[in-house]
Amino acid sequence: MKSIALLILTNSLCATFALAINSAGSSAKLQLKYFDIRGAAETCRVLLALGGEEYVDARYEIDQATFQSPEFLEAKENGDLKMNLNRAPVLVIPDGRVIGQSKAIERYLARRLGLMGKTPEDEAIIDCIAEHCRDVKDAAARKGFSRFTKGKTDEEKAIARSEWFETEMPSMLDKIEASLPETSRSPGFSFGDAPTYGDVAIWALLRDCAPADLDDTTKASEKCIALNAIADQIASNPGVSKWLKERPETMF
Ligand SMILES: N[C@@H](CCC(=O)N[C@@H](CS)C(=O)NCC(=O)O)C(=O)O
């Protein structure tokens, strides 16, 4: 039963991918190409859900045993990924041009979808909030406690993990929380009184981390009332909550 379900899922993902590839360059829709994981593309997908724009969600399947993706290798060989230096994600825009770098894609989508404020100054402040979230994620990665970290014992990883979640992450989140009164005009929004890219970045940081880190992240952020209200506001947006219910279940 499980293998039939997997086969159906695999076939439907292949169909999605084939549709995406066949329509490259000619589609009026945006086409986001990435692995079949949340990873570096999920903030883009959530921005699109929040902004209500339809797009082609082209996914390179990953073999769960080998972590290889023949579809990704083929795309690399075809030159589809040149604009991200042979990596994913890339976004193909309706005129056929390709944008690489996940953060550049996020900012482009946010601007396109009206989630970057009204002026260059608004945009810079919203971007600044999103960059705070990136700092937190980068600091966690540098701390090196994930199962992919090499050169550390399990005991060393456990120590790094508790230092991060008990002290360092709460301290960084407190600083972000303290900055919000400078930019927010209403509870539930990091900038002004409407959803922005910064809110999506906060949601991704607090709610869309690796499932194994969710409880510790929730605990580390428990005193951050404003940040949690923003994350809840994004999660309860109808487009986003529909996406969260319907998105493919993936390993990361
Ligand atoms: N700075 C780039 C990094 C892109 C990147 O490292 N992509 C990874 C997946 S998250 C990748 O394509 N890895 C496969 C490879 O490099 O062969 C971005 O944010 O888009």
Automatic annotation (TrEMBL):
Signal peptide: 1-20
Protein name (Swiss-Prot/TrEMBL): Glutathione S-transferase
Pfam family, one: GST_N
Residues annotated as domain GST C-terminal: 119-252
Residue span(s) of domain GST N-terminal: 28-117
UniProt keyword list: Signal
Regions that span the bilayer: none
Keyword Signal found: yes
